[in-house]
Specification:
Strand content of chain A: 25-35%
Order of helices and strands of chain A: HHHEHEHEEHHEHEEEE
Shape of chain A: globular
GO biological process, one term (chain A): methylation
Protein name (chain B): Methytransferase partner Trm112
Low-confidence stretches of chain A: 1-5
Largest sheet of chain B: 4 strands, antiparallel
Helix content of chain B: under 10%
Radius of gyration of chain B: 11 Å
Number of helices of chain A: 8
Mean pLDDT of chain B: 95
Order of helices and strands of chain B: EEEEH
Helix content of chain A: 25-40%
Structural class of chain A: alpha/beta
Number of strands of chain B: 4
Radius of gyration of chain A: 16 Å
Oligomer: heterodimer
Largest sheet of chain A: 7 strands, mixed
Largest interface: A-B, 20 and 21 residues
Number of strands of chain A: 9
Strand order of the largest sheet of chain B: 1-2-3-4
Distance between the termini of chain A: 41 Å
Number of helices of chain B: 1
Low-confidence stretches of chain B: none
InterPro entries (chain B): Trm112-like
Pfam family, one (chain B): Trm112p
Protein name (chain A): HemK2/MTQ2 family protein methyltransferase
Distance between the termini of chain B: 20 Å
Amino acid sequence: MTDEASTAAGLAERRGEETKVYQPAEDSGLLADAAAEFARGRTLEVGTGSGWVAEQVAPEVPEIVAADVNPHACQQARERGIEAVRTNLMDAFAEGSFETVLFNPPYLPTDPENEWDDWMEQALSGGESGRELIEPFLDDLGRVLAPGGQALLLVSSLAGFEEVEELARDAGFVPEEVRQESYPFETLSILRLTRFTLCGKPSSGKID
Amino acid sequence: MKESLMEIVCCPMDKHDLELDAAERDDGEIITGTLTCTDCGESYPIEDGIPNLLPPDMRDEA
């Protein structure tokens, strides 16, 4: 893999994206496919982008809400008939609100000196590690999930699959890989995250 | 936004409940209005049916 291929700029160029909103791609399709099997109850899609995944999942669940920090993304999701909320990750959602949370995070590792600071960059870049949005997402996930709730998280090999699994465990979740597809530049997986429990109570995720 | 969304949204800064003031409704949805935090008093706009629940310092970039 070349350096160029590993940057957000490289991928955006290959995908021919010059718009302000990330449009559905292979990763979106994989997340929608897993969600069709696992999503249940009131469902949130974090970082919905075009709203395409939320639209695919809507018929499968009683209620779906889409969130994005990008106002253009919120508009596109609403045009698809999806309830949209402009917020950073899950900041504006109350405790225990969702049975399912879906997230296809910006994950491309990006050199800070090469960031180009527009909406598409925000939609693609996961910072230097590729995990800059995944960490705060996992930190706040337990708060917005209802008891017995789950998340479906898209993970790319570019962001480090084992590192993301470890972060999920540290946040008190059990990661289970429910989808995997390989592409020339990356392998995409869907991790299903459920809360780690001992004796029926959420634990810190480790057995002492 | 539908009024039922009020059950699951909160102030992004302190997580307290929000109070809805709807200025324009259409077909059961709130098109414009404001959401005000019942604790800190910060208010958030609803425009084109979309609540903008970014903290004030992040709100204006577009």
